[in-house]
Amino acid sequence: MRRSEPGRINAAFHGKLGNFTLDVELSLPATGVTAIFGPSGCGKTSVARCIAGLQRMADGFCAVDGDIWQDGSSFRPVHRRPIGYVFQEASLFPHLSVRRNLLFGARKVARAPIAFDEVVELLGLAALLDRSPHHLSGGERQRVAIGRALLSQPKLLLMDEPLAALDRTTKDEILPFLERLHETLSLPVLYISHDMAEIERFADHLVLMERGRITGSGPLHALRSNAARLPGTIEGRHGDCSVRRKRVGTRMTSMPIDFHDIDPNRVAAILYRPQDDVDGLLADFARNLVRSGERIGGVVQRNVKDGAGCQIGMQAIDLMSGTEISICQPLGSGAMACKLDAAGLAEAAVAVARAIAADVDLVVINKFSKQEAAGEGLRDELADAIAAGIPVLTAVPEKCLDAWNDFTGGIGTTLLCERGAIEGWWLDLSSRIKRARAARLPADAPAALLADHHVG
User: Fold this and answer.
1) Which of 31, 45, 188, 402 has its CA 20 to 30 A from that of 157?
2) CATH class of the 264-452 domain in this structure
């Protein structure tokens, strides 16, 4: 199937992703909606990431409507692939209005195939254009995310379980808009889901996946009955969903889902420059959350200065206990910062492990810097927190951004090094988590249970 065909999406990916084996070959129509259906961890998202260029496999091929994006001798990077990608979480920029979010990354071309006004009308966004993302419902946020993807003028729209984080009422609110897109636009769509009820609303073609392999591909009506036999999906609840070992960072961690299926908005990195006081910013943010009663854990640090404003040392704090982590490494003459020594690093690792074990609502780890990029420092503790599904916030220097992306596989949200961006991310994410908890518990559940139940 390693050939490019006009009017077709041809793809083949074979190889290992940690301990997971992906072995797929696809030939799909480059029109209408093709749904990729299967249980969590079967490789649906991995296929989408390979097509998008977010995941590179040495043995891979991808061509869309005759345009080759990857073969044995070439690999087109993600920024050069004309795709729109819609994730489970909208990941809107909290400091931009709906209008500016829509226009962010929009291609400025004469007579654009997909016009701004058309997208606004199709998705019912006219009344929302001047609002902040903080004042949007879950369905409204996801409609904005879809609109932003469409305005990048893609040749292919990838939608990775875009309704998975929404309750049934909100899903029913947004599904009519997806149906309108299908009816109005000729853009091909790959729609990933483990809920056949969604797929039946608007999909034309169906791909069935299980354990990294394609088990069926064809028109929706021809394969609908086969989907019910897949374990671990909404259609096949009684199958065996055994826990598999997945690689996260450098450590093998027990996870019930593929690493790439982790909610990307739960992993956030503050991108900073040498002149930014990211230590003070992160420490103040964490301290304010602790004071407000939020359940957070991890480690933050501050550079200690003398009366003249010169840095003379570093203070690290265990957020759960409030205790100072011992540091025995003084700054050298003319140095601008110092790092945790072996003793301090061991204490910091224990602090993070304690937070993960306590199933806190947010883990803060001060930095993913040179040590972590080299496979040392708190890299494994970061991996464990991400694997546990707990929201994670860290800071990444610009020079380590590539290493961070390699470590996470490209998932996550990048934040500006400013208070409003960080607070906006957490306000939005924490409110979503609380709504999800309430939606999953009985209506008559006691208030204490609603407050304490953690959704991973």
Assistant:
1) 402
2) alpha beta
Q: What string of H, E and C letters represents the secondary structure of 362-404?
A: EEEECCCCHHHHCCCCCHHHHHHHHHCCCCEEEEEEHHHHHHH
Q: Quick one: residue 293, left, alpha or beta (phi over 0 = left, psi -120 to 50 = alpha)?
A: left
Domain 8-82+155-260: top CATH class: alpha beta
- Run of H or E residues at 189: strand 189-193
**Kind and range of the H or E run holding 439:** helix 419-440
Closest CA to 68 of 9, 14, 4, 7: 4
Rounded percentage of the chain residues whose pLDDT exceeds 70: 80
- CATH 3.40.50.300 domain span(s) along the chain: 8-82+155-260, 264-452
Q: For the chain, give the longest Cα–Cα distance.
A: 76
Q: For residue 391, give both structure tokens.
A: 């929201």
**Mean pLDDT per 10-residue segment, the chain (456 residues):** 85 88 93 89 89 90 94 90 87 88 79 86 92 89 92 92 82 86 88 86 90 90 66 42 35 38 77 88 91 91 71 78 70 52 78 87 91 86 85 92 83 85 87 72 46 35
Residue-level pLDDT at 131: 92
